[in-house]
Amino acid sequence: MSSSPGILSHPDFRRLWIADLLSQLGSRLGMMAAPLLAVLTLNASTLQVSLLRTSETAAWLVLGLFAGAWVDRVRCLPVLVAADLGRAVLLGSIPVAAWFGVLTLAQLYVVLALTGLLTVLFDVAHSSYPPRLLAPEQLLPGNAKLAANHSVAAVLGAGAGGFLVQWLSAAVTLGLDALSFVWSAIWLRSIRTPEPRPAPAERPNLRREIGEGLRYVFTHPLLRPIALNQTTTMLFQAASGAVMIVFLVREIHLSPSLIGVLSMTGLLGALAASWFTERLSTRIGDARALVLGSAAIGVAFTLQALTTPGWGLAWYVLGTLLAAIGIIVSYIVAISARQRLCPPDLQGRVSATMSFVSWGAAPIGSLLGGLTATAVGLRTTLLAAGLATLLGASWLLPPTQTPLVPSPRPLHQLAPSRRQLAPRSAPAAAAARIRPARRAGRRG
Fold it and tell me: What is the CA 405 to chain-centroid distance, rounded?
């Protein structure tokens, strides 16, 4: 198998990787700037701030499953470029409105909601594109590089976002977010590898095609527990994330720049995880690596809830570091397993189904976080969200439902029988590409 550094020798993957990094950085700037804009400039309440994230992620409930069926019919690259340019236009309207003194919370909600719709199309196409660009044995190192972008952008974007908000204002920071999408689109347009148009279905039927994606995921003994775990994690991660900025500003009394500095400490965890996940998965097996990553996220969110002023900020730093590790490990293992197990003609629908059930929980979680914080307080809400996220790792524990087994068996040994799958799916051959755990030095 190609090593992770070697995958960047693929010129078009390198272009995709750069575009992804720019897009991720811009998105993270926006995730930091939007709630700070609401809190510091528009004087929004805790519930109103949580509704920002709700409006942005509600698109998964509206468009998620449709996007998967549609992406399976079209080339992914034009979708990625169009979504980037559309988000640039929408987010660019915020600094313009602020410049003329007419920016309102209502405009912020509308822009984030429409941006969320384009993000759904982008994410589904982006998740389905690597199998069209790379060979199967390149997917794990390729996804490791893309996952590194995700976490590095989360940390650098949060850090830079805090500084930029304090120095330039939140509205201008969102304008920089818009520019990052333009730059990403330019890099995507430079990809030269031809992407063939998927063969059209004999009788296109959107409802049937969506149903095939749902059945494949929820009858698959490996993908089903992963989907349920990701849904639980996203639900309570969204609840925590919706009120975290309010908690740090109003209870811990941190400035935007200090919030950014503390958030950047997760960079070390992100870089470490992107480097060792492939080795960890090879040594202990994909299943155990996935469980460890999921549990680490829950522990991390719980630690963040213990944050206090002064030396108590160490809890936030430690939680941020551990969260970056857990998120990257879980992401790399889960998406690589899904891409190997899923046949090419179902990639978009299965990707959309997995995203729909996980990201579809995000608007519910954001609203839940805002309502709970209003009722019982910010710290209690964060603590409950962390413990619930940790409990969500239990979806991966029963051997009858998940790839976790007493010994690190390869995931392909647990592939479903033909009777468990839709007639058209045929994942058995794809499942054989799941890499076995290394057994050297182990007994039994």
Answer: 26
Query: In the 8-state DSSP scheme, what is residue 377?
Result: -
Q: How far apart are CA 370 and CA 349, in angstroms?
A: 32
Distance between CA atoms of residues 215 and 388, nearest Å: 27
Rounded to whole angstroms, the maximal C-alpha distance in the chain is 71
User: What class, spelled out in words, does domain 10-192+207-431 have in CATH?
Assistant: mainly alpha
What are the E-state strand segments in 163-316? Answer: none
Contact 278, 329 (CB under 8 A): no
C-alpha distance from residue 237 to each of 20, 150, 163, 174, 325 (Å): 23, 16, 24, 23, 15
Q: What are the pLDDT digits (tens) for 270-306?
A: 778 877 887 888 888 888 888 999 999 999 999 999 9
Task: Say which residue the tokens 């920016």 belong to.
Answer: 103
Domain boundaries, the chain: 10-192+207-431
pLDDT in tens, 32-45: 899 999 998 899 99
Both tokens of residue 407?
A: 């010994």
CB 247 within 8 A of CB 46: no
**CA terminus-to-terminus distance, the chain:** 26
Q: In a 3-state reduction of DSSP, which class is residue 134? A: coil
Q: What is the pLDDT of residue 433?
A: 39
Q: Which two tokens stand for residue 282?
A: 């090879």
Name the token pair of 52. 């920002």
Q: What is the pLDDT of residue 410?
A: 38
**Distance between CA atoms of residues 237 and 144, nearest Å:** 22
One-letter amino acid at 213 equals: G
**Three-state SS for 283?**
helix
| Residues whose CB falls within 8 Å of the CB of residue 56, separated by 6 or more in sequence, listed in order | 34, 112, 113, 115, 116, 119
What tokens were used for 405?
A: 């087994």
Residues of the chain below pLDDT 50: 1-5, 399-444
In sign, the C-alpha dihedral spanning 20, 84, 115, 157 is: positive
Output the six-digit token pair for 142: 């390729």
DSSP 296-326: HHHHHHHHHTT--SGGGHHHHHHHHHHHHHH
Q: Using alpha carbons, list the distances in angstroms from residue 201 to 73, 197, 198.
A: 8, 12, 9
**108 CA to centre of own chain:** 22
Burial 317-334 (b: 16+ CB within 10 A, else e): bbbbbbbbbbbbbbbbbb
In three-state secondary structure terms, 70 is: helix
What does the alpha-carbon distance between residue 237 and residue 231 come to, in Å, rounded to a whole number?
10
The reported pLDDT for the residue numbered 199 is 67
